[in-house]
Amino acid sequence: MGAALPVGDPVPADGSLPGARIDSRTPFSAYIHVPFCRVRCGYCDFNTYTATELRGARQGDYAQTLAGEVALAGRVLADLGPSREASTVFFGGGTPTLLPPGDLAHMLDAVRGEFGIAADAEVTVEANPDTVDDTVVERLVDAGVTRLSIGMQSAVPDVLAVLDRMHDPANVTTAVAAARRGGLQVSVDLIYGSPGETLDQWQRTVDAAIALEPDHLSAYALIVESGTKLERQIRRGEYPAPDDDVHAAMYEWADAALAAAGFAWYEVSNWARSEMLRSRHNQAYWRGHDWWGFGPGAHSHIGGVRFWNVRHPAAYAQRLARGLSPAAGQEIPDAAARTLERVLLATRTSDGLPIAELDATQRRDLAGLIADGLIDGPVAIAGRVVPTLRGRLLADTIVRTLVA
């Protein structure tokens, strides 16, 4: 049901953010968390719930409950400065498409009514391929959705079984085709390095994903999270532990195959067919924009203040029903934390980190990273810190070197 929330300072009952400093030029985004899944995947550590875990909360009430937090956010932000339209909206989870399209439209209309949504906004919905057909797509398009992110994970049934993914691999093709007919941009999500997965199996998955001709592709190395079913299975010896060298070989092969197919990497785990087809919502996170995360367990960043909601849908609904903020805690990162985050995020992207943001010591350390083949030398001479392919595989080394 998700990792424990961080420990922070209490949030005023009305949700106000007295420490926030809003710059009206900073773009604003909305994240909408839909915490429902049919089954819990063995590797998943997200804040999600199956029907049997929803004691005290009703899935059918969720859209109206979340609209209450949108209204609260509108009151809080109105006290901090001029209203800003949402430049991106992202429905994540969980499985947002487990809800009827009308419920997703209701939540999107709440954001639209409270803040407005920019005419050119990117509006993304994550989807399980088993839940997508032409009717669903048509209703999402009518609601204002522009992009579908489809959870493919693997094209190999044996690998999906290890991950406890229940969807039919054939439905990925069906879902992509439906999205295309509806005029939506399409992204597919993959996971590599599952226990026992071979390089050949991974190559089959990447080839199958490329054959779908998506606009965007994300590929994430499997992380075995503590407390998950998969972690217990590995501890009992039912599956082998993931191998970092295998992960590296899989990543290098995928990057080469995607480049040959016309994709360019723009963040360690993300590739797009053009700059215009990058995930603008994810870039909002990496660039430190403002976003409000709606829903149980969702995290937000507004005017330099970070805060996060209570995790369980019942506790979330109960607080909002009492007129209280659902936020469980908040923090204002200090200068050192902000620098660490800026370096960590920017050096994972092809846009990179401006060298002008580094101090004299960091610039000296940069020379060693270039010599070790982790940072692109010619790009650094031009003024930006961008990782090489080897640097993407050793991104933590770059961060540790620059932020001692």
TrEMBL record:
Keywords linked to the UniProt accession: 4Fe-4S, Chaperone, Cytoplasm, Heme, Iron, Iron-sulfur, Metal-binding, S-adenosyl-L-methionine
Family statement drawn from the similarity comment of this UniProt entry: Belongs to the anaerobic coproporphyrinogen-III oxidase family. HemW subfamily.
Localization per record: Cytoplasm
Main function: Probably acts as a heme chaperone, transferring heme to an unknown acceptor. Binds one molecule of heme per monomer, possibly covalently. Binds 1 [4Fe-4S] cluster. The cluster is coordinated with 3 cysteines and an exchangeable S-adenosyl-L-methionine.
Protein source organism: Microbacterium sediminicola
NCBIfam families named among the record's database cross-references: hemN_rel
Keyword presence, Iron-sulfur: yes
Name recorded for this polypeptide: Heme chaperone HemW
Transmembrane annotation, as ranges: none
CDD domains per record: Radical_SAM
PROSITE patterns hit by this protein: RADICAL_SAM (PS51918)
Main location: cytoplasm
Domain Radical SAM core residues, every copy: 22-264
